[in-house]
Amino acid sequence: MANDIDPDTYNSYTNMRNNYGSNYLQQSAGLQSRMATGTQQFSNQIRDAGTQFGRQRSKLPGQFMGRGMLRSGMYNRGRNEFQTDKVNAYGNMRQNFAQQQQGWAQEQSGYGMTRDQGYLSVEQGMAQARAAAVAKI
Known about the structure:
Low-confidence stretches: none
Mean pLDDT: 90
Distance between the termini: 15 Å
Structural class: mainly alpha
């Protein structure tokens, strides 16, 4: 198939195709690195929040005991508010990470679309070059 167009044109289109593939691989590798870093940061954030909440929770009874309110119902309300705040904080962290993952997926899709469009333009160019070579015969 390549012999029906001149070698310079064929080599030019082959180089273009290789460049699209190489760019895609480089972009994907960069994205994979950012995803690994982002995932590790999320993991660290969850771990650190767990440590922080654990410290806060251990101090909770003392705050009420010191004021003589441990059995007044205020402690239970404070504990429930603490638990709600904790659940909300974890939920927000997970939601932010999920949004980050969606962004990564869209970015990867964009890289693939760019590569595929490049491949298509190369194939169209080669088809036109073949048609022109056949028309000269």
